[in-house]
Specification:
It is a single chain. The protein is built from one helix and five strands; from the N terminus they run βββββα. The protein starts with 7 loop residues before the first strand and ends in a 9-residue tail after the last helix. Strands 1-2-5 form a three-stranded antiparallel β-sheet, covered by helices on one side. The chain has 75 residues and is α+β, with helices and mostly antiparallel strands. It has one domain.
């Protein structure tokens, strides 16, 4: 399942577990929040995980700099 860039709040490299853990922002849908708040990318190759994590962080930081986070509408 794909995750939109806008939902990635943080990523954590967990080499000992063979994964990159993504923390996601809630999805605002029809007046309620839905969907899981974390996902993981699993890989047995340390270099692949390191590359995935650095790429995620680079894109997340670029997105944050280009468009500061907007507050969710209150309802």
């Amino acid at each position: 399942m794909q995750v939109p860039w806008r939902r990635i709040k943080a990523s954590q490299l967990q080499l000992e577990r063979g994964r990159v853990l993504l923390t996601l922002t809630p999805e605002h849908d029809a007046g309620f929040f839905a969907g899981p708040l974390s996902r993981s990318i699993e890989c047995s190759h340390r270099a692949g995980l390191t590359l995935a994590h650095s790429t995620l962080e680079m894109h997340r930081q670029k997105r944050a700099a280009a468009a500061p986070e907007q507050p969710l509408p209150s309802g």
